[in-house]
Structure formats: structure tokens, C-alpha cells
Design brief:
With 309 residues, the chain is an alpha/beta fold. The protein is built from 12 helices and 13 strands. β9, α7 and β10 form a beta-alpha-beta unit.
Amino acid sequence: MAVNARNMTDDELFFGHKACAGCGGSLAVRAALKVLGRNAVAALPAGCMSAVGFNFPQLSFANNAMITPFAATASVLSGIEAGLRAQGVKPDDCTVVGFAGDGGTADIGLQALSGAIDRNDDMLYICYDNEAYMNTGIQKSSLTPFGARTTTTPAGSNAHGCLTSKKNLFEIVAAHGIPYAATASIGYLPDFMRKVERARDVKGTRYIHVIAPCPTGWGCGVEETVDIARAMVDCGLWYLAEFEGPALAGADHPFGRFTLNRNPAQFASVADYLRRQSRFRALSDQEIAQVEADRDRKWAAMRERWIAG
């Protein structure tokens, strides 16, 4: 399903920032704001996008935007939404949107996000996932994948990087009964923008989890960002999916409905994807085979329980 170009702005609303070359997070923010438009009000916690977008006097947001405390993105969004409502601003005229990294979402910000979903506050929360705390020096988050080298999970002759698996945040959010949630990748940008467009038009709390590679932390070329993001989907280590809560899913799905937007008959090579990034350099062939086996188990479960779109 293509993005409706008539509902997009020609304006650039995030530009002149100081992100690293090849930054996937900056592409995700730029694309989302193209869909949401100039009237969107954005909030960002401590993280890459606040660090590169609020360097006075070169402020990079053309729409209203503010920095929040690290743990409080969703709480600040709740306050913004309440304030706009008190001023009589109609929800159709303005989207309240948060952009937070994986650490600021899955770790320190999870309690605020959970509370916002519980209240069903009218906001869109976008997690740009680069799989570590990149802004503060590439430390592990709970969304760092197994085997990845970070400064807190070093890799060498006696260590093989991160020893835990990536937290399943999409399904955690869906378990709250959220009205709408989706996964995406900047490697499939039209799919991401379509989901932002869909989320924009849903009322209540919405969540989008977009993979946004960081060449600095991932150890890949700055020109490879989009290809790496696409390869992660193609090899099955990330998936494109949507969750519709009961109100959207209908009476036949009282607990909501999961849909796989992309269900490949055959996966690309996991080894090729991992070997393109220096953060996985210490993984052995046996460990890569284990990653592949874990992928197959995850996909078997999704294909059994979810609808193929």
C-alpha cells in the first residue's frame, strides 16, 4: 500500500542537523514529519535526535519541538496533548508525536509509555531503534541483539558481545491493548511512511517501532544504512507487522489482531547480514547458526498466530 502523497507536506521539517553521516534515526524523523506535517508537536528525550537537532542557534525542527527528561517522553506527550485540548486545538489539526531511541523507550522510558497506553492518551510514539545507547557512547540497551559488541558488552578472545536477546517490545506494547502499533524499517521507507500515515489518523495511543541503523555503532559504511536496514528484514531478523486493538480489529478479534505485512517464502543469509557489521565480528559460525535457529522459531510462532497480509 503506497503512501498517499496528497497527505504529505513538501516542506522539510527536520534539516540542518548534526547527525553522523548515514544516520538512520535522522532519516526516520525526517520521513515521519513529512507525513505528520508542520502542525505536529514533537517531544524528544535525551538521545541522538535531541543531541543533533537542538544545537542553538542551528535548531533543526521547523515544527514545534522540545526536549524532555530521559524517562519522561510519553508523560510529556500526555501533558502536551492535555494542554492543546484545553486550548481547543482539534486532534485532527495537530499530531502530538514523540521520537525516542531504543534505550529511552525499552528501558528508562517504558514505565511512562505503559502509563500513557493505559490512559489511552491521544499521541503517537515512535521508537527509532539503533540497538544501543549510541548518543552516550554505544552502551548496551535491552534492544541490543545477541552477539553485538558495545562498550559495555565488549567482544574479543574471551567475550562474544551481548549475551542477551533483543526484548520483544512490539508485542509488549500490543499486550496493553493499544489501539494501533507497528514495526517498520528505514530499509522499507514507503511501508514506514504508510504506517505513520495510518497512525496519524487513529485516535488514542499509537506506537511505531522503526529499525534505524547507526553506522558508527554497527560498524558498517555510512552509505550502507538503508541497505543494512533492508537486509535485516530480508534475512528475517526483523519483521514488518501491525497490531490493531479490539476497536480497529472488529468483533471477530476481541483481543486485537496481528498482521504480518511481509511474509517471505525464503530468507536471505543471516551470516551475510551479520558479517557486514564489525559489531558482530566475534561471532562464531556456531553462534550464527544459533541466531538463525532462533529466527526460525520466532517466525514459526508468528506464522501460526498472526495473519499474513
